[in-house]
Amino acid sequence: MYRFFDWLSRVFALLGGLVLTALILITCISIIGRTVNGLLHSDWLQSIAPELAKRLLDLGIGPINGDFELVEAGMAFAIFAFLPLCQIRGAHASVDVFTGALSRRAKSFLQAIIDVVFAAVLILIAWQLFEGTLSKRNSGQTTFLLEFPIWWAYAVSLVAALVAAFVSVYVACTRVVESLTGDVILPLEVGAEH
Predict the structure, then answer these.
(1) Which range of residues forms the domain containing residue 112?
(2) If exposure means fewest CB atoms within 10 Å of the residue's CB, which of 3, 105, 113, 174 is most exposed?
(3) Cα–Cα distance between 155 and 114 in angstroms, integer?
(4) What is the pLDDT of residues 139-191, one digit of tens each?
(5) How far apart are CA 124 and CA 169, in angstroms?
(6) Does 145 fall in a domain?
(7) Position 37 in a domain
(8) How many domains does the chain have?
(9) How far apart are CA 164 and CA 153, in angstroms?
(10) Are 84 and 12 in contact (CB under 8 A)?
(11) 63 located within any domain
(12) Is 186 domain-assigned?
């Protein structure tokens, strides 16, 4: 069972990484385009090479139209896509201030409570995303510049949120079993500790 959830988590982390890489490229290309466009419109370049500046501007050099809409739509998916891997590997950042002196059994019980609450919160988020997706779909709202339906971004984020909730429920159930039996089934505390 662990292998399936780990595989699913890794697949979504890879998808999230691809989307995040695309968003970074879009942002960089748009910034470079905006900067070059400003340079082509500058008095200095217009005075020394007006024909070159005009030709380059006619090619459409400038920022990517709707870049912020694409980034906004893709970021939620990327965030939700990384959550399952963090959850199943126990890789969330934790601060060990009060729990350092606790026994292994007490820490296991506390981790089970945390993971059950985390799963409940992710289920609630997924449910609200589902409601939001339906609401945006029924309203017919589109983005301002690109005019793509807003519900598309909600739906893609919903898929990643559902996977995150699904994996979190598995982790929570496994942590409860661990706290009751004393066995270690999933990795614990491999994240960044401060």
Answers:
(1) 2-93+100-181
(2) 3
(3) 28
(4) 999 999 999 999 999 999 999 999 999 999 999 999 999 999 988 888 765 55
(5) 12
(6) yes
(7) yes
(8) 1
(9) 17
(10) yes
(11) yes
(12) no
